[in-house]
Amino acid sequence: MSKITISIDGHSSCGKSTLAKDLAKELHYAYVDSGAMYRAVTLFFLENDVDPIDAPIVRNALENIEIRFQVLDGQNHTFLNGEDVEDEIREMYVSDYVSPVAAIPAVRRSLVRQQREMGKAGGIVMDGRDIGTVVFPGAELKIFLTADVDIRTRRRYDELRAKGVDIDLALVKQNLLERDHIDSNRADSPLTKAKDAVVIDNSYLNRTQQLQQALKLAKERIRLSE
Ligand code: CDP
Q: Mean pLDDT throughout 5-13?
């Protein structure tokens, strides 16, 4: 069976990584959370006071960042320079700063290069904002996932609360709207639906239902690629 490339793009907190992980598991494909890479770079910038508008400093910082993923107890963990930062990169102070960092062209160039390397053999599901448009424009299956903003807010709020984070619902919504705005309006690789992407609105779909829809599409595309 041939191995295809699957991209999942969409707005903040619409369940892209849940769907991408479920799909990768069903198909025995690799899964890459490209957002975790932008979050790890952001954490490094914050911890090392990297001034995002100072190009030589940004370039130098990027040369000193090594990101890798490892599955531990069935969970995906992101490592930044050898340190497990999986929990830290999901915190609000990183969420508040990630979209401006992700808008820096040098940051995108560096991460896109690494993402293409990870996916060069196919058999991969990658989620993000520019995967179907920029990282893998030739992906056999492109999904554009979307959901109502209040439903997305509630999901992220519940996720943070379950982790013990004390946060206000209104602040979560504000962060999602701000990131959506910056991500969709930046000059370099804005979030937009690829022309050949299939839209799935999962506002009223549960996890199994969204997986079934995506799996059906994936199986069709795998068959076509053979
Ligand atoms: O999980 P959530 O949808 O909240 O976001 P994420 O996938 O972890 O991505 C965090 C941020 O990284 C986004 O808001 C974008 O600013 C940036 N990002 C990007 O620019 N390009 C990607 N391929 C993935 C993420």
A: 97
Q: Of 162, 125, 137, give the one whose Cα is nearest residue 24.
A: 125
Domains observed in the chain:
5-218 (3.40.50.300)
Q: How far is the CA of 195 from the centre of ligand 1 (A)?
A: 20
User: What residue's CA is closest to ligand 1, atom 8?
Assistant: 35
Residue of minimum CA distance from atom 20 in ligand 1: 102
What pLDDT, on the 0 to 100 scale, is given for residue 12?
95
| Banded model confidence at residue 194, pLDDT cuts 50, 70, 90 | very high
- Per DSSP, the three-state class of 52 is coil
> Residue 35 contacts by C-beta under 8 Å, 6 or more apart in sequence?
16, 17, 98, 127, 128, 129
User: Look-up: residue for tokens 């830290």?
Assistant: 88
Residue 98 Cα to chain centre, angstroms: 12
Q: What is the pTM of this model?
A: 0.96
d(C-alpha 117, C-alpha 56), whole Å = 25
pLDDT band at 210 (very low <50, low <70, confident <90, very high): very high
Mutate-to-test residue for ligand 1 from 32, 89, 98, 155, highest number of ligand atoms within 8 A of CB: 98
Closest-CA residue, ligand 1 atom 21, reads 129
- For residue 12 and ligand 1, the question of a CB distance below 6 A is answered with yes
Q: E-strand spans in 129-215?
A: 141-146, 198-201
